[in-house]
Specification:
single chain; 350 residues; alpha/beta; six-stranded mixed beta sheet; four-stranded antiparallel beta sheet; 39% helix; 24% strand; globular
Length: 350
């Protein structure tokens, strides 16, 4: 089934400074971020960004500080205006919206979850969760029902009468997620939403997001600087450096096929056995299902699962199934090779 593009970003540039259009010419002629700042006192925020966000998928944008990821997400709801480029949502040009259309976009189409929680300290958990519906003019009785439903889902129903200062950081972020869900917006923007949390709480929040996404199928842009988090959450992964996209695609493919030494540095310390899935390294079945296999494994099993299942027998061959039907084969020798990070010609041996 073909995927529907919910958000399309095309040829997007953002340059900060007094004369961004003149600086844009320098960038298009090959000038990089450092040179632009040193020679012309302009900051290159984004350079020729092209990303499609499919409906119902999580697009994760990751990179180090200063890579442009937070700048990018703020373009979608026009908290930041681009220097040039196009942003379409549901086939409509967001950059052409007037003030009223833009307010409607922010209230009804896109919700945002912030790194710093952004809860209103003088309002209860319930009131914070229902903020966006209240702004739309929904009655208190109506938004109370909806807000309580989502507070229940994130495990905070019994705290509805509390105030933010009475909650832990993880609980406050759950309120932020409940607020975004209460709005019933089809698109969620999550800017470093979990980075301020302790590791165990962060893992719980990731699991909660995946659980909710399995049911709700929101279109999500998630910003992070953590590759483990990106690989766990992403359907589509976009890696930024100095304002431009170094590589984008299905996370498993990027991990197996880094196209740049910069990407290799990111993936070099990843536990590949825990992250890679059988579907990424299997050999598709062409024709008859092979006989004599050691057993069956799921296409969604991790390589770590298979290593444990095989008990170290590197001669094993498995039939890979999806929804009970055979779709491929996996030889343990192929699995072992996949555990070794690939090195590009540009970087050479380490």
């Amino acid at each position: 089934m073909p995927k529907h593009i919910k958000v399309s970003i095309r040829n997007l540039f953002k340059i900060f400074g007094e004369d961004p259009l003149t600086a844009l010419d320098y960038v298009r002629n090959g000038m990089g971020k450092a040179e632009l700042l040193e020679q012309h006192q302009h900051v290159l925020g984004l350079q020729d960004i092209n990303v499609n966000m499919n409906e119902g998928e999580v697009t994760v944008v990751m990179g180090l500080s200063g890579s442009g990821k937070s700048t990018l997400i703020r373009h979608l709801n026009r908290l930041i205006e681009p220097t040039v480029g196009e942003i379409d949502v549901n086939g409509e040009d967001v950059l052409s919206y007037n003030a009223g259309e833009l307010r409607k976009l922010r209230r009804e189409t896109m919700s945002m979850v912030f790194q710093k929680f952004a809860l209103l300290p003088h309002r209860t958990v319930l009131e914070n969760a229902g903020t966006l519906l209240k702004v739309r003019g929904t009655s208190r009785n109506e938004f109370t029902v909806e807000a309580n439903k989502w507070l229940e889902r994130v495990g905070l129903r019994e705290f509805s009468d509390h105030y933010p200062y009475q909650l832990s950081g993880g609980m406050q972020q759950r309120v932020g997620i409940a607020r975004a869900l209460t709005s019933n917006s089809p698109i969620m923007l999550m800017d470093e939403a979990f980075s301020a949390l302790d590791p165990l709480i962060r893992t719980d929040m990731q699991d909660l997001l995946l659980e909710l996404q399995t049911e709700l199928h929101k279109t999500i842009m998630f910003i992070t600087h953590d590759l483990d988090e990106a690989l766990k959450l992403a359907d589509h992964l976009v890696i930024l450096k100095d304002g431009f996209i170094v590589q984008q695609g299905e996370p498993q493919y990027i991990l197996l096929n880094p196209n740049d030494p910069y990407i290799e540095d990111f993936v070099s310390d990843i536990n590949r056995a825990r992250v890679l899935r059988v579907r990424s390294i299997m050999t598709p079945i062409r024709g008859e299902v092979p006989v004599g296999a050691t057993g069956e494994v799921s296409d969604n099993d991790t390589l770590e699962d298979i290593i444990a299942y095989s008990k170290g027998d590197v001669s094993s061959v498995y039939i890979v199934t999806k929804d009970g039907s055979p779709i491929g084969t996996l030889e343990m020798s192929t699995l072992v090779k996949a555990l070794v990070p690939r090195v590009t010609a540009a970087s050479g041996p380490r």
